[in-house]
Design brief:
Elements: E1 9-17, E2 25-26, E3 38-39, E4 52-65, E5 68-77, E6 85-88, E7 91-93, E8 119-122, E9 127-135
Parallel strand pairs: 2-7
Antiparallel strand pairs: 1-4, 2-3, 4-5, 5-9, 6-8
């Protein structure tokens, strides 16, 4: 085995993702309600969620044990532990508006969804994983 394979290895991965667009939508009617969504404003015109960013770190250290190589591995995911919001409730209404179907695009009717605009998920928190690899 060459000397190169016995050196510790360090890896760093960084990522930045533009936040997704925010919408205001109304549920349609019928059996496939999710398929009949009506957007009350153009997608993205209600703003965007925050930019998601973080980094991951890996470290491996090979140790020669007779004819085998035992490699200790450590992974640290989401180093900065941002937990930035990734989705929010975009449903302006959860029921059909008064006067439906003529009023399906009426934005003057108030929202009947008390959860509208609230965050529904965030980036996963930081976590650590360790492993041992044995190669012959």
């Amino acid at each position: 085995m060459s000397l190169r394979n016995r050196l510790p290895q360090l890896g760093l991965e960084a990522v930045a993702l533009h936040g997704t667009s925010i919408a205001a939508r109304r549920q349609g009617s019928g059996y496939y309600q999710e398929a009949s969504v009506v957007y009350l404003v153009p997608r993205g015109s209600a703003g965007r969620l925050p930019t998601q960013w973080d980094a991951n770190l890996t470290l491996s250290y090979p140790i020669a044990v007779g004819p085998a190589t035992v490699t200790l591995q450590a992974y640290l995911f989401r180093i900065f532990n941002n937990q930035i919001a990734t989705t929010r409730d975009n449903r302006w209404t959860t029921s059909l508006p008064n006067g439906y179907p003529a009023t399906i695009y009426d934005t003057a009717q108030p929202s009947d969804n008390p959860e509208y605009g609230k965050f529904t998920s965030r980036q996963a928190p930081r976590f650590f994983r360790a492993a041992v690899r044995v190669s012959f």
